[in-house]
Amino acid sequence: METLNNEVTAQQKITETVGKFIGLIGKRLPDDVGKRLVELEKEEVAPLSKVVYQSMMDNQDKAMKLNRPSCQDTGVIQFFIKCGANFPFIGDLEEALTESVLEATKNAPLRHNSVETFDEYNTGKNIGKGTPSIFWDIVPNSDKLELDVYMAGGGCTLPGKSMVLMPSAGYEGITKFVLDVMTEYGINACPPLLVGVGVATSVETAAVLSKKALMRPIGSHNPNERAASMEKLLEDGINSIGLGPQGLSGKKSVMGVHIENTARHPSTIGVAVNTGCWSHRRGHIIFDKNLNYEITSHTGVSL
Ligand code: SF4
């Protein structure tokens, strides 16, 4: 365990900073989500839709004023890590992040959401075997650490669906899969939804991409022109279902549709869908090699 100064180890510093960041994420939505909710409220005309959006805004104000979570389901904490191969504290990271969840559980506080499978008891700590979820990407020639921290709720992005289509199903098959999922269970999460779609080679590659798609800022587009065009077509299609806020009907169903993709085997099209809800609690933080940090998802925050 490396020491930053005489008193505080690097592991402690990461634990403390990320623990506080988790607490903040549970209360304050990221800037892009807040902005999109305001935009969507303006587009609705029905009084019921407007009232529901207003209650979401009130909820957010009160979460900050009363220091309470934005939603009672504070989810399973998931970390999507881009860690530089030269980040000096790489070896301490997994333990530091796990400890940060424990800290946030006590201090934020977070609901107890970790049940050990087969033994079927709640650990009461939000940590357990393989939990929190940590997804690693190692970045060559970098000494930085980039973290997407996400609260995955039981009604939104812990459910999800993935399958492998025959290649003849083509992009029409992907579209049908996505729309079938959205009309079957999309409403299970509280709309307006952020829809993540993974298009890849197998169930597991598509599934991870569909979740990573939800870490992208709202309003961003897939760099591939055709994929970006499909994002727009799917968004229009899902909006035409008319879910509206909280599924009580309205003009718009989604905050956006994000597709992430990789190459595929000629014989397969892996596809997956994951839906984030209106209380899409994620945060993005970057540490340098001295553990100075920058938060890009929430402006004006110091932990
Ligand atoms: S879908 Fe989202 S807002 Fe609705 S209960 Fe679950 S976490 Fe909360």
Describe the 3D structure:
The chain is α+β, with helices and mostly antiparallel strands. It has 2 domains: 10-27 and 70-153 and 281-295, 2-Layer Sandwich (60s Ribosomal Protein L30, Chain: A), CATH 3.30.1330; 161-276, no CATH class. It has helices at residues 10-27, 31-43, 47-66, 93-107, 170-184, 203-212, 225-239; strands at 76-84, 115-116, 121-122, 133-139, 145-152, 161-165, 193-200, 254-261, 269-276, 282-287, 293-295. A 5-stranded mixed β-sheet has the order 4-1-5-10-11, covered by helices on one side. α1 crosses α4 and α2 (31-43) packs antiparallel against α3. The protein is globular and about 60 Å long. The mean pLDDT is 95. Bound molecules: iron/sulfur cluster (SF4). Iron/sulfur cluster is lined by residues 71, 73, 153, 155-156, 189-190, 277, 279.
List the helices and strands and how they pair.
Layout (H helix, E strand, L loop, with lengths): L9 H18 L3 H13 L3 H20 L9 E9 L8 H15 L7 E2 L4 E2 L10 E7 L5 E8 L8 E5 L4 H15 L8 E8 L2 H10 L12 H15 L14 E8 L7 E8 L5 E6 L5 E3 L8
Parallel strand pairs: 1-4, 7-8
Antiparallel strand pairs: 1-5, 2-3, 5-10, 6-9, 7-9, 10-11
Helix pairs in contact: 1-4, 2-3
The protein binds iron/sulfur cluster.
Cofactor: iron-sulfur cluster
Family: Belongs to the class-I fumarase family.
Subunit structure: Tetramer of two alpha and two beta subunits.
